[in-house]
Amino acid sequence: MFAGCANTEPQISRPIFVSITSKSVKFADMGFLNEFDDKKTMEVYSLGVPVFRIDFDDYVCINSDCIKSETFIREYVSRELYGSLFSDILSRKPLKIDSKITETATGFIQEATERYYDITYKVDAKSASFIERNSGFKFSVRFLDGN
């Protein structure tokens, strides 16, 4: 690396299994959740080729086509949800929406129904699952490293 260049190696890289289903996108495969000093990224591969990438709070890229996170969420999930939604899901944090949260032995279930969304979000020790029924969007991640 040249002097003055930023380090692009993640501080933490966790193996994950990701499944995404929407009206125009559908895949399930292995990937990595990478944590840097100032951001997180998620990369999903199919046959060793990157097919989906999220730079949290910035862009969502599918097969090299990138759009702002807020635009992706409005178009594919719900126009009433916020831009850092995926960051909260991958951090297994409660969503920032008015909802009912039920504690479970290893996590929680969050449910919310409003005019523009009908959400069930489940978190446990090794996974997170997000379903928005109005748009048919489903996103689940299983952490393969046991953390």
Please describe what this structure looks like:
With 147 residues, this protein is mainly beta. It has a single domain (12-141), classed as outer membrane lipoprotein receptor (LolB), chain A (Clam), CATH 2.50.20. The chain contains two helices and eleven strands. It has an eleven-stranded antiparallel sheet. The longest helix has 9 residues, at 69-77. The radius of gyration is 16 Å and the shape is globular. The chain starts with 11 loop residues before the first strand and ends with a strand. 20% of the residues are buried. Mean pLDDT is 87; it is low at 1-5.
Quick take:
This protein is mostly beta strands and 147 residues long.
In the predicted model, the low-confidence regions spanning at least 5 consecutive residues are: 1-5
Give the CATH level 1 class: Mainly Beta
CATH architecture descriptor = Clam
Largest sheet: 11 strands, antiparallel
What is the rounded Rg? Answer: 16 Å
How many β-strand runs? 11
Rounded mean pLDDT score: 87
SSE map:
Elements: E1 12-21, E2 26-35, E3 40-46, E4 49-55, E5 59-62, E6 65-68, H1 69-77, H2 85-90, E7 100-103, E8 108-113, E9 118-123, E10 127-132, E11 137-143
Give structural attributes:
single chain, 147 residues, mainly beta, outer membrane lipoprotein receptor (LolB), chain A, eleven-stranded antiparallel β-sheet, 2 helices, disordered N terminus
